[in-house]
Amino acid sequence: MRERSTGCCEAVKVTDDVYWVGAIDWGVRDFHGYETPRGSTYNAYLVLADKVALIDTVKAPFASELLSRVASVIDPEHIDYVISNHAEMDHSGGLPEVIAAVRPEAVFASSMGVKALGQHFGLEGVQAVEDGGTLSLGGRTLAFLETRMLHWPDSMATYLVEEKLLFSNDAFGMHLASSQRYADEIEESLLAWEAAKYYANILLPYSKLVPRLVEKIREAGIEIRTLAPSHGPIWRRDPDKVVGWYMRWASGERARKAVVVYDTMWQSTAKMARAIAEGLAEEGIPTKVMPLRASHRSDVATELLDAGALIVGSPTLNNGIFPTVADLLTYLKGLRPRGLVAAAFGSYGWGGEAVGQVAAELAAMKAELVGDGLKVQYVPDQGALQQCRALGRQVAERLKTAAAARAPE
Ligand code: FEO
Using a 6 Å cutoff on CB, does residue 91 contact ligand 1? Predict the structure, then answer.
């Protein structure tokens, strides 16, 4: 048996039998198109019982960090089982290196995870666990719960029965690098923003599955004392808080709030955006104006998680939508926001096709459009700016009507 390592990094004790052995990625700034200004963590956990289990691994460049943390507790070769909750490479990229170092008795994944791990890494011999199946560690029991599409088809969670601890993988996570491991050590407003950003940019398309998962957890009699996701902090106190946030976002509840997002070539579309925002403000609608040269698409998606209205402006460039606006619309359409009131606007020189194209994209998101799109040739004069303010007021009225229709009787 090897001596315990005094490598780069130490494990963090979560309970008597569970250690956090993940990695902190302070430098990551992009997660497949989602801007992560505060970095992220790839959480992995060591469960000590007669048999030792490692729950998840980390992104490939961080495998040595994981092994170093494991070695601060036990010889990594003493890991018997590796559980891969999710085959996406931020959790499985380090798996081949970990397997080579640990030589575990068995590696487990969901049936779809087995296939994905085989295709990603050519891994053979990974064993499939069933939804609701269990694995005894001797004195401790792991139970498996499929969480399909939260966030990939193969995703699953693992429950440590005796500790009432749910390793939820992507679900209930957030991209937030921190020296604190627990949510109760971090400012709540920061947690709420990063959890919302994660939900809006990763999980929104699968919102219908969130209440089903929570119901499935209840039906299975799973009580969660500790919620240990694979990104961001661990919820050792009040895990219901983040579950409650998820349920609210999944409900599609929208506030009387508007987001005006645009790009501009010569400030004309910018002037229109400001006038529309003034019209909304006249009607008492809190409005976030987001010029795309200063706002990342993932921040727009986050603001839109609870906003009731989206107003999008684009100049016409070469008979089409300005590239940054097209980028945003493609991204948002994939996230499938529902229940929005929307409008399109923009300045043009001659053809003016962009506004109609923006309106068509908003309609494809099943948004309720106000007008056909407001176009202004060249620079908006006072009359045109009055039209913009009127559009803002119209959107505000529609937003109030939509909110009243949704209000409980
Ligand atoms: Fe954190 Fe779907 O990977």
Answer: yes
Q: State the Cα–Cα distance between residues 234 and 166, nearest whole angstrom.
A: 10
* Domain limits, the chain: 12-250, 258-399
Encode pLDDT of 116-155 as tens digits.
999 999 999 999 999 999 999 999 999 999 999 999 999 9
**Catalytic residue list:** 32, 86, 88, 90, 151, 170, 198, 231
According to CATH, the topology of domain 12-250 is: Metallo-beta-lactamase; Chain A (3.60.15)
The finding on whether 175 has its CB within 6 A of some atom of ligand 1 is: no
Question: How open is the CA angle 139-143-146, to the nearest 5 degrees?
Answer: 165
Supply the pTM of this predicted model. Answer: 0.95
Superfamily of domain 258-399: Flavodoxin domain (3.40.50.360)
Between β-strands 141-146 and 156-160, what pairing exists: parallel, antiparallel or unpaired?
Answer: antiparallel
Q: Which residues contact 92 (CB under 8 A, 6 or more apart)?
A: 56, 57, 84, 86, 117, 120, 121
Q: What is the pLDDT of residues 346-372, one digit of tens each?
A: 999 999 999 999 999 999 999 999 999
Distance from Cα 305 to the centre of ligand 1, integer Å:
20
Does 17 contact ligand 1 (Cβ within 6 A)?
no
